[in-house]
Structures are given as structure tokens and as C-alpha cells.
Design a protein that fits this description.
The protein is mainly α and 70 residues long. The longest helix has 14 residues. It is elongated. The termini are far apart.
Length: 70
């Protein structure tokens, strides 16, 4: 997925207050960027976002045991 700079920053940090303080933006803006990241990475929740990002970052082609399994 094609993410812009601030979206990549949001993707890498998961706590809104910390993100907003570091980037000097409002929590609402953080939420908007996070929603964009989740849409672009086709994640339905934060857990999926982290899992999907991990697969992209480390080029994992097989699911990690225990992640996403029921």
C-alpha cells in the first residue's frame, strides 16, 4: 500500500496521545490518519493493522504461528 509520511508515522506508533504530542497535531488528526492507514492496508482493527504491517515489513509469506489463529 502507498502511505504518505504522516500515515507511516501513525502506522509505526500506536498510542494517540503520544503520536499527537510528537507530531504536534490533534488526536482527531491522528485518528483520521490511522483510519486512512487501516483502509489502505485493509485492516479491520488495530490487531490486523499490526499483523498486516508485520507481514509487509518482514516480507513474511506464511502466517506466524499464533497470530490470527483461532
Amino acid at each position: 500500500p502507498s502511505l504518505v509520511g504522516s500515515e507511516m508515522c501513525i502506522r509505526d506508533r500506536m498510542i494517540n496521545k503520544v503520536i499527537s504530542a510528537e507530531l504536534h497535531i490533534s488526536s482527531k488528526t491522528v485518528e483520521m490518519h490511522r483510519a486512512n492507514v487501516m483502509r489502505k492496508m485493509q485492516a479491520r482493527n488495530i490487531a490486523e493493522l499490526i499483523t498486516t504491517y508485520t507481514f509487509y515489513k518482514f516480507s513474511i509469506t506464511e502466517p506466524v504461528v499464533g497470530i490470527g489463529s483461532s
